[in-house]
């Protein structure tokens, strides 16, 4: 998965800063960014500039709680297309999956998800910046995800827990807003109950999502201007599979080319469409079995198979194992590695 090295400055930033009761010019001054950044056409930020903007927010806050201010101020008016497309999803899990993909278009962030029978966990990491992150950054991301779910479901969503590398200022106020405790750990992870993660979005809007989708997929596929045709096909398939769609014709339509042109370009890369689809399904299936508690039937659905038995046969062909045996062996290896590491530390 490619990482972007520049990010579009959406006009919603200026509106959000104003709604937070802050001066956009003052924020940009503290961030050492151009004073006309929010008004400039086609303005872009590097990873370092992105985090300088957050430092500017902190410096301009006069000690106020940035995370809670943002949580109380965000509105649909401030959403850029990647966030709005996620807001139009069927439920919180689907929205998080889309955000995990689209986050690359918003900032130098990587968002990993783990969906289990009891909870959905979201872990955030950053790249492209070698200085300490703004103290408000991780907690603000946690507040944003929580508030996004509340807005879309019209329910009082409360995370199960919030774990941060750096504890925020105004910790008690942040805990009161989230409705859960915040503790310091080695990762920035927020957890939601399976019930809340699967709660339907009242804002689901297939028409609007389809309106934004072609441009977003095109932007993902051309990160750094060098995505191959295989990467583009895989990016489209990842979005299609949970809906049960996987045909070459549909992929070609979403990539704005004919089926014949798509087949020809894959052939030029010494590949065929069936191989690309099969390889992606195999990789995703292995990931879900290693990192989630999803049942084979649920994984079958996420991979776009017609029925679970088709998935079971395919997985046996790929690996020579059943999904259950594969998961058991993966977890056994992981447990053995953890024990070896612990034993090594004890001997040291």
Please indicate the percent range of residues in DSSP E strands (runs of 2 or more). 5-15%
Overall helicity: 55-70%
Radius of gyration: 22 Å
Which CATH architecture of the domain at 7-197 is right? Alpha-Beta Complex
Major β-sheet profile: 5 strands, mixed
CATH topology of the domain at 7-197: H-NOX domain
Assembly type of the shown chains?
single chain
Distance between the termini: 37 Å
Class based on secondary structure composition and strand pairing:
alpha+beta
- Poorly predicted spans: none
* SSE series: EHHEHHHHEEHEHEEHHHHHHHHH
Region (Disordered): 323-348
Biased composition (Basic and acidic residues): 328-337
Protein name: Helix-turn-helix domain-containing protein
Keywords: DNA-binding, Transcription, Transcription regulation
Characterise this structure.
The structure is a single chain. This protein has 348 residues and is of the alpha+beta class. The model has no long low-confidence stretch (mean pLDDT 87). The strands form 2 sheets. A 5-stranded mixed sheet has the order 3-4-7-5-6. The longest helix has 25 residues, at 323-347. The chain is globular, with a radius of gyration of 22 Å. It has helices spanning 12-19, 24-31, 47-60, 66-73, 81-87, 92-106, 137-153, 171-178, 194-197, 206-221, 229-240, 248-254, 259-268, 273-291, 296-302, 308-319, 323-347, and strands at residues 7-8, 44-45, 109-115, 119-126, 161-164, 182-184, 188-193. The chain is built from 17 helices and 7 strands. Helix 2 packs across helix 3 (47-60), helix 12 packs across helix 13 (259-268) and helix 15 (296-302) packs across helix 16. The protein starts with 6 loop residues before the first strand and ends with a helix. It has a domain at 7-197: H-NOX domain (Alpha-Beta Complex), CATH 3.90.1520. 57% of the residues lie in helices and 9% in strands.
């Amino acid at each position: 998965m490619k990482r972007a090295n520049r990010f579009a400055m959406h006009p919603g930033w200026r509106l959000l800063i104003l709604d937070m009761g802050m001066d956009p010019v003052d924020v940009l001054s503290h961030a050492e960014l151009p004073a006309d950044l929010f008004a400039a056409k086609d303005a872009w930020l590097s990873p370092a500039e992105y985090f300088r903007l957050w430092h500017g927010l902190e410096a301009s806050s006069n000690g106020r709680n940035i995370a809670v201010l943002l949580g109380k101020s965000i509105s649909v008016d401030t959403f850029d297309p990647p966030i709005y497309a996620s807001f139009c999803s069927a439920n919180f899990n689907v929205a998080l999956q889309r955000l995990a993909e689209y986050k690359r278009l918003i900032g130098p962030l990587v968002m990993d998800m783990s969906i289990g029978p009891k909870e959905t966990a979201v872990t955030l990491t950053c790249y492209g910046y070698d200085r300490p992150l703004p103290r408000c950054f991780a907690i603000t991301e946690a507040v944003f995800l929580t508030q996004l779910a509340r807005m879309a479901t019209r329910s009082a969503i409360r995370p199960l827990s919030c774990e941060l590398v750096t504890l925020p200022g105004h910790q008690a106020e942040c805990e009161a807003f989230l409705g859960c405790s915040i503790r310091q750990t080695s990762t920035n992870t927020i957890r939601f109950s399976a019930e809340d993660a699967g709660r339907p979005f009242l804002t689901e809007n297939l028409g609007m999502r389809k309106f934004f989708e072609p441009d977003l997929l095109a932007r993902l596929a051309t990160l750094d201007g060098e995505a191959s045709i295989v990467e583009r096909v895989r990016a489209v398939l990842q979005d299609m599979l949970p809906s049960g769609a996987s045909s070459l014709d549909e992929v070609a339509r979403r990539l704005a080319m004919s089926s014949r042109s798509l087949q020809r370009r894959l052939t030029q890369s010494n590949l065929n469409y069936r191989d690309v689809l099969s390889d992606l399904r195999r990789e995703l299936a292995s990931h879900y079995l290693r990192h989630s508690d999803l049942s084979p039937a649920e994984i079958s659905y996420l991979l776009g198979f017609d029925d679970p038995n088709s998935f079971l046969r395919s997985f046996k062909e790929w690996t020579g194992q059943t999904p259950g045996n594969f998961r058991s062996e993966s977890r056994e290896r992981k447990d053995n590695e953890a024990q070896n590491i612990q034993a090594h530390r004890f001997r040291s």
